[in-house]
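Researcher: Please generate the 3D structure of the following complex. Treat every line as part of one assembly.
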Amino acid sequence: MAPPESLKPHWFHILLSLADRALHGTAIMEDVLARTGGSMRLWPGVLYGSLRDMAGAGLIQEVEAPEGAPVEGGRRRFYAITSRGRLLLHDEVERMATLVRAARAKNIGQGLEQA
Amino acid sequence: VTPLDEGRARRVYRALLKAWPEAYRVRYGREMEDAFLALLRLAGERRGRVGRVHCWVGAALDAAVRGTAERFGSGHALREHTMATGGGDMVGAFLWDVRYAVRSLRRRPLFAVTAILTIALGIGANASVFTVSNAFLFAPLPYDHPDRLVTLWAENDVLGYSHSNVSPADAWDWRSRTHALQDLAVYTRDGLNLTGAGDPELVQAVRVTPNIFSLLGREPSQGRAFLDGEVGQGRDNAVILTDGYWVRRFGADPRILGSSLVLDGRTRTVVGVMPPDFRFLEAQPDLFLPLDQAPADAPRDGHYASAIARLAVGATLDGAQDELTGVARALEAEHPDTNRGWTVRVYSTHDELVGDVARQASIVLLGAVALILLMACVNVANLLLARAAARSREMAVRAALGAGRRRVVHQLLTESLVLATAGGALGLLAAGWGYRAIVAALPSNLPPVFRFRMDGHVLLFVVGVTVLSALIFGLMPAVRGAGAEMDELRESGRLRGGRRTGRLGGTLVVLQTAMSVVLLVGGGLLMKSIAAMRHQDFGFDADHVLTMRLAPPSASYPESDDLRAFWRQILDRTRQVPGVVAAGTTQSHPLMGSNWGNTIYLQGPDGSLQETSVHITYGSPGLFEALRFRMVLGRTFGAADMEADAPLVAIVNEAFVRRYLGEGADPLRAPIMTDEAKGKRVAIVGVVHDVVERGVDKRPEPTMYAPDGLVVTRTRSLVVRTVGAPEEATDAIERAVWSVDPNIPPYSVETLAALVNRRIGGFSVIGYLMGTLALMSLVLGAVGIYGVTAYAVGQRSGEIGLRIAMGAQRGDVVRMVVLQGGRRAVLGLALGIPGALGLSGGLRRVLVGVSPSDPTTFACVTLLLATVSVLGLWLPARRAARVDPVRALSAE
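Model: Done. Output below.
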């Protein structure tokens, strides 16, 4: 396998949000915001542009709204991760883990955990 | 956020959504609104108003960038770009970078302070000089559509006049016969004695045609402008005050309109006051009067007025010039007696007011401060390069975390931007003081139309310069830090770019040395030029001389005989004052700034008369003695020469003899025919050594001195030589004047030495500024050389340790380091000298008594820089040679 290009950070985060459940756009945005401590804001233009492009690349797909999902003010599109998306996410996490191991081996770990 | 706020926010965001194409909006618009509102709510909860503002800025950027990209189909390419730079949230990433930069700078305060001060120096110098240059070069004159204002001067090639005053009669024909000029106004300057209530005072007046205020687009703020019927002898009774004079003399009396003033013995009425911010062209008068002679009635051969015109909409300067040349030619044909050879030249009023010296000085100084800024940037770049090595671990962490090259460049650039912004803010503060210091040193006779202040242009300039310098000093280390080394960093977590960094630092040192040469040569030449001006042979002795101007009014002294008697009495009384050695009068004393010329006829070898023009100074007996003019031949004027029926005599200067009589001729036998006495022979009775009269930067030109009796001038300077300090005799001399006529106020009372200083003043501002900049460049250059060398030898401590371990003497190490650095210095000098020649060519106009390629200056600069370079190399080299080989090698 060719060495994977590092995944664009917000694609990575969108995939991560969808890893265990289907979500609509706003929920993805909120999830990413919470996970990154407020540092990654997915602006609407970026978010929906990405969702469209990721769906085009077969990493995610539009799905029916799950049972019991809150319907606030109108129908929303829900997205779920595809197996291809899951594979890519897996590779990315592996790649990061390798890097972290390499850094730790050089005693760079402590500073990292503090940050 | 209340529901009401939310409704409003939704509406505003809906407007932003218009940036996206219709189809996209239909599909995602509603959900994007929801997403944005959620974002807004969260940001508000987290950080209050700041968060919400941030959110709106981000949304606006998002709409601008993504929306337009979708619309124009370049969405894909652009998306790739923004994604690669760091995950979509550009604003957030930027702010994060800023926070990070501030934090990391705070951890290294010495580095941060050094860098910020260096930048502040560069930006402060730039902002100061730009504030002053801006007023000269770019700021519009304080009139309506000032770009359409033109100044007209008369010119006569036959008689050798250029930039001459115009004949109002001619000017009025230019006005009526051209289409390119929308309007034209004529004015003259005049001094009048104000008597009546309070002390007598000589007021500076400008006599104008009534249309001048509408032409400039500035009307009186109180009362009215002049009427057409108010021009002409006996009708010129209306007065318009400038605001400054109204405040100074009348305490801003609100009932001033309609009150009477006695000027030169005649009662006139105040009809208007100009606004406080009104400034009149080249010098601010106290008041305005209508011309005492309608232009159309003026004698055509009287060239005594200034003319200003407004180009018609769409007309050009060249077009106006062509049309006016045609009119001047027609006038020449219509009035051959008076207009032979006379034509007219059109200049931009702005250019005329600024003048060559101020413009060239501004450009040269702007160039010089740009070099200073570059040098400062180079030094900061050096600091950053050295620091990049120290930060290799941090870079490794970031690389390990998957930060892309672009991301790291962004972060490093942000750090530079933070440094530059801090430096820029500090520089701006310093410039607030710096430009005032420059303005305070500017000559006081500068046109009042220039307003020196830190306006929006200056602010914009500083912002631009700040960003530019951040790019200059940030990009090099940033690209380096993120470039080729990135892979290396990922591999080993350690930067080994020391040698390459050293090479880049070396290149920077070469550049700095070259820039230093340019600035030092410029500063050196200017300082030398000022010294040359100060120590030139003026032809007179300025020490112990007091000058003052007196204007006996025509109402009290109508005839030549009255004037002759008045001035004789003044001289008699003055000479009786204790401590007065000599006293004389003249219509214009040296360096006063007047420019009287006279047409004379010289008899050629074949007996024919040749018409030419020379400068003329009318003087009384005692004048040459008071000024200590040095006679080369013959005698000075005596009392007998002043009589109305005395034979006509003249004294000429050496330049006159050289130009018109030739080396071999006997000047005392050459006949001159003057214009006033056509046909009468004027005898040259003496030759005087050349006197610098017209400007400290101007070579003496052929000049003729005639006794005051030949033409009886009204307003004259009283020139007095005293035994002690001339200031101490001022009161006694003024009392002597008042004993002749208590209604005559002496004005422009000044020592000649002070006048000389004032004249040199304008040039010395340029010189001292250049000198200061040169000194700055020397310091920056020295610091640069020292820094680069110290860093390079630090990097090479292992190698140097090895050399010493292998038996190299410490002297060898010092020699090696100095020689290697010395090559750069030599290269820098070689590059700098052609640059300096280029700059000094631009200085030609302001250099006096020193050649732009003055070998002494170039040699001194070379020597100075060589010394500084060696010193900057030797200090770190010596330290390197002290390296303990064991420790240096074990560290490797």
